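We treat protein structure as text, and this decision shapes the records that our systems exchange. Because each token names a local backbone shape, the row as a whole describes the fold. For reference, a complete record is included directly beneath this paragraph.
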Amino acid sequence: MTQDQPADSLGEAFGVVARRLRSASVAALSTWDVTPSQMRALRILGWHGDVRSSELAQHLHIAPRSATEVVDALEAKGLVARSADPTDRRATLVSLTPRGVELMEEVRRVRGIESERLFERLSDTDRAHLARILQQLQSD
């Protein structure tokens, strides 16, 4: 099935839309030289505040070594900073820098524009139904 062919099932249709959103997101992130995994790490830091690298790895569902590589890349770009954990001097906390916060806000804005372009063809009623359905599918 190509993107131009109609989906045979609800799952396939959902997959096509998800791929379109992901493609738009990856394109937006490339503007800032940030990978999707790096952006996920920034979002986790935005939600949870300062965290240890091991905690970040757990949130990202990746190996601690992989989290270290993500943090190294983000730190090199000035988007995160490491500091000593005041409760355990052997541990290091990772936090967003002001530049990291700015990037997150800008990416969120651009992603919102891209999402709006995709969903603008839906009526307000359809959008409300879709939002309700997606919320229901997200719950356990």
User: Anything to note?
Assistant: The longest helix spans residues 10-31.
